[in-house]
Amino acid sequence: MTASTTEDEKIVFFFDIDNCLYPRSYKIHDIMAKLIDDYFMEKLDLDFEEARMLHQQYYKDYGLAIEGLVRHHEIDPIEYNSKVDDALPIADILKPDPELHKFLRSIDRSKVKLWLFTNAYKTHASRVIKALDVEDQFAGVTFCDYSEPILICKPKPEMFERAMRDAGVVSKDKCYFVDDSFVNVKGAKDFGWKTTIQYLDPLDATPPNLAGHYEIRKFDEIKKIVPDIFLS
Questions:
Q1: C-alpha to C-alpha distance for 103 and 223, rounded to whole angstroms
Q2: Per-residue pLDDT averaged across 158-178, rounded?
Q3: Which end of the chain is less enclosed by CB atoms within 10 A, N or C?
Q4: Mean pLDDT of 94-122
């Protein structure tokens, strides 16, 4: 009989949350973008077009609009979170997804630890996985900690280092990752993670270049990429 894999030897499969565990067609991102624009208008006394442009500029420069607000306007990120992420009507939009649940349960937990990895704050992550009813499928979550004076988020190398510490994995060869963001997947590949996968929405155009090692449009396609981590 083959000895079971210890926790230290397990692969850690990191899953992004937004527009990854649920489809972009739910338009949660669109609702969030409006809430962010409204926040910029209220806090910075901008008109809509000014707010929209600054929001997009900060997202381009830092990967998160909130990082630009903290750096340049001394905005409290926890207060921002309450007005943006935590104001999203998650429970009204997201419902349990049997196909997602079936896919996650098909992964062999004697070989693999599942871990959430998001640029959102922990409260948003908790609300989403609760609405999708997959709380019991993940061993933990690495999130952008809005309580810290300097925000660290994907695709910064420090964020991938944090995720590995949180999940208790030492070797980059044990790190698998799926995310809808091109820059995040590219960041993970550049950081040296073994298997990096960009999740494309069915309506997304195919990027001219691969962000990571693979592209998928359905989670079941991962079974062809790494078949050995699934139950037979």
A1: 9
A2: 98
A3: N
A4: 97
Residue 197 Cα distances to 34, 48, 96, 172, angstroms: 29, 36, 24, 15
189-200 tens-digit pLDDT: 999 999 999 999
Radius of gyration of the chain (CA): 18
Task: Determine contact, residues 88/31, Cβ cutoff 8 Å.
Answer: yes
One-letter amino acid for residue 86 of the chain: D
Closest C-alpha among 94, 111, 113, 112 to residue 17: 94
Is the Cβ–Cβ distance between 128 and 152 less than 8 Å?
Answer: no
Mean pLDDT of 11-39: 96
Query: What CA–CA distance (Å, rounded) separates 131 from 108?
Result: 24
10's tokens: 């397990």
pLDDT of residue 64: 85
